[in-house]
Amino acid sequence: MRFSSSLTRWALGAAAVAAAAVLAAWAVTGGGILSPGRLHAGREGGGRVGGVASHAELSKQCAMCHTPPLSQERMADRCLACHVEVRAELGDTTRLHGILPNGGECLQCHVEHRGPAAVLTDFSGEGFAHERLGFSLAAHRELAGGGAFTCSSCHAAETFRFAEARCAQCHGEYQAAFTAAHVRDWGRACMACHDGVDRFSAFRHDTVAFRLTGRHVPVPCTGCHTPVRELAAFSAAPETCIGCHRPDDAHDGRYGTDCAACHHTGDWSDAELDHAFPLDHGGQGVIECRTCHQEMPGFRTYTCYACHDAQEMRAEHLDEGIREIRNCVGCHPTGREREGPFREDGRADQEEDRGRGRGRGGRGA
Questions:
Q1: 186 pLDDT exceeds 50?
Q2: How many other CB atoms are there within 10 angstroms of residue 318's CB atom?
Q3: By the 8 A CB rule, do 140 and 191 touch?
Q4: How far apart are CA 266 and CA 350, in angstroms?
Q5: Which residues contact 307 (CB under 8 A, 6 or more apart)?
Q6: What contacts 324, CB < 8 A, 6 or more positions away?
């Protein structure tokens, strides 16, 4: 028993000495004798992080990443001390590392000592709430060739940087003509409008303020929304007739901008005017608008004195005891010479006679 106890103490002592020697060697050589493999050599043009261009530059300085035995410090803390951009993401729930429930546990996804050109990230994305990054994968389950989507289908393998050119490349494989036209019209910044839920395929224009009717229905989106390179710009399209049709205005602005007073979307040339005053007044057929509406742009004002001499009309009406002659259609709603009863003070006996004749004419000049 005494011999056995001595042997046990000797074995424990030898083990302690060996462990101390290993730790001493680890400390002296920076852990090099324990390295399980070569470190990553970095990417071309990747810049410097933590003062080095790659992990390989730290191959003899293991303590830069690995914490001492029994230390309370985590290895992830040393990762984040250099990778400050990742540390900043941890507090942002719209960024990759901020969304991950274990975003600060670097070793759960990132591995090393696989060689100078090995992939540094093992991340399947299983169960990851991708829509929280602004793009849903609901409509992106299968590639055009039939394979399943993986992170690398859209993202660079090591950096997870989104390769936006992949959108047009992938969609062009099975809808080449549409994709080419779409890129030509709207550009290549697909994420500026699309969020992965395919909302534009079921979009109905009558759900917004400007509804499409008549000749507007077959007009392509680019007919009104040009140029558009982001979603918010769609709301910048003109919502008035004159906003789009000013070059088509045959009136050259003489009748104002209320095009819908006469025109409709069924046919621009098929104008309809609800005119209270007869347009064939004078017995010479339908007269031109400018004959009466010539003083100001718009249909709200008119003059009768383009044809009727003002002095003669004033003298004639005074002879009849009528002193108010500014609103001609108030007394002559149909253009006839004798219509509407009057009092001696020159005012119509029936107010509705005056109101009925105003129509679109308003007050005359």
A1: yes
A2: 12
A3: no
A4: 40
A5: 282, 291
A6: 346, 347
pLDDT digits (tens, 9 = 90+) for 223-239: 888 888 888 888 888 88
- The three-class DSSP label of residue 52 is strand
DSSP output for 178-189: HHHHHHHHH-S-
Q: Which has the closest alpha carbon to 77: 67, 62, 88?
A: 67
Q: Is residue 180 very low, low, confident or very high in pLDDT (cuts 50, 70, 90)?
A: very high
Do 254 and 297 meet the contact criterion of CB atoms below 8 Å apart? yes
Residue 281, helix vs strand vs coil:
coil
Residue-wise pLDDT for 254-268, tens only, equals 777 888 878 888 887
Distance CA 167, CA 183 (A): 10
Q: What is the DSSP letter of 239?
A: -
Which two structure tokens, joined as six digits, stand for 91? 């507090």
- The Cα–Cα gap between 57 and 39 comes to 8
pTM: predicted TM-score of the whole model, two decimal places = 0.51
Q: What distance in Å separates the CA atoms of residue 118 and residue 157, rounded to the nearest whole number?
A: 10
